[in-house]
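tool_log.txt
---
The assistant was asked to compare two proteins side by side. It first ran the structure predictor on the initial sequence, then on the second. Raw inputs and outputs are pasted verbatim so the downstream comparison step can read them without reformatting.
(1)
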Amino acid sequence: PKRAAQLVRFDHAAHRLAAGHSAARVAAEIGYVDQSHLHRDVMAFAGATPTAVAVAPWLAVDDVAWAAPEYLSES
């Protein structure tokens, strides 16, 4: 649940960044403690900086951030 909530928050942030809002404003509006926490989540989910997401909003969520459940892993 925590990871899903982080992804939803990141998605909202990415849309606001793409709309031209500053990273500081987005962090405050979305509920991040500060801009560095926004930066950390954007890097984790998109593998890019907030600035890169702002100019290329189609960046996909990083597959590494969502590892397959153990039952799907090969043993």
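(2)
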Amino acid sequence: TVIRHRQDDDQRSSRYDELLSAETRAAKNAKGVHSRKDAPTHRISEVSGDASKAKQFLPSLQRAGRISGIVEFVASGSRLRVYLPKETCLITLLLAGIECPRMQSTGNQGHMITGEPYGEEAYNFTREHCLQKDVEIEVSACDRVGNFIGWLFIDDLNLSLSLVKEGLSGVHFSAEKSPFYSQLIMAEESAKTSKIKIWANFEETKTVEVVDDTSERQCKYEKVVITEVEGPQCFWVQHADSGTEIEQMMERLRTNLADNPPVPGSFTPRRGELCAALFTDNNWYRARVLKTSGPKEITVLYIDFGNIEVLPISKIRALPRDFASMKPQAVEYNLALVREPNDEEMKYDLNAVFKNKILNNMFLLNKEYKINNQEFVTLTNPESKEDIGRALIAEGLALVDKRNEKRFQKMVKDYLGAQDTAKKNRLNMWRYGDITEDDAKEFGYPTK
């Protein structure tokens, strides 16, 4: 309809009379808003988040091939909400074939999920190219929570391929099944060679796995105390029999620094250098400089305990020579035959329970195997005889990391039995069903 103006209103259109005439004709012919019929009801089906409904839609979307749509919302570099006019439905689309860096976000329990480098840049790239624009999509699959996985095209430009070319994403192994695999690999190799974005610090590495031909599993338990825990794939221990020696060494260090106070500004910490660091308990400990965190801040690793802290440079001292010769007393290990879920919230729950179970407690440690000089071990409670790795799997918090060596087959079978029981009872990560179909990064096809 036309906005009414007074005759002397200078805001009135120069074609005001023509507009009024057009409105009169439309009203006379009962067109549009002047119709005496009720406005048609547009029913849009919300498919996202409903796994059963998504599975019903999937076959028809797969048969349709390329489908026209409009991007309504961009959640991250590879997650979008797309409206499909012909199908009158709204879906969440995860870009297939790529691993896009994660953006910082807030989890369901309010904890902050840390973002990955270039996650924000990937989001901005996708938003700039897609938001509120006409696109075409090809749906390949759907995940366990009702999100569709597929390819998105803007003027025949493959968005997955564009993100890889820009160095804002890597190629996911599931892309091998797609017709775009060779293009994606070539784009990734080009980005790696140019060292752009996520590949800026990329160095080609070769995985060297030490294979022990021993047919029988060897058990040589060592008593250890857990001093620091990040998760099953990174925790630090002290050997129980070295506790007295460590205490005596630290006491001598504190006495030495008290008797020989350094001159302020006489020590400039360098990356990788040993130093003395003043912990929050106001005691000095041996540490290694990891990096400079700011103009006057240093990140250090306490080499006898494994914890990391950011300290003002005023709390860093040169380590007296007599205390540099003793090897670090905290040793880093990984939990054998245990795999973390890829879901960040599930991983958060796993790490919290694992830390609560083992931190500052004594366990029997057994070295199982080594990959790239990283030791993988099992931890057993000396009193209850509980295998910590198996317990995490039995509680539905972790997955089994299978090994092919003959000596591990009995353990693997036992662990898989515990995993199946947790799955049947829908414990923790299994509460919504089987996650193993798509327990890879969310941005690929489901694994088989």
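---
observation on (2): Residues 152 and 240 are 57 Å apart (CA to CA). The chain has four domains: 1-35, 45-199, 239-323, 330-430.
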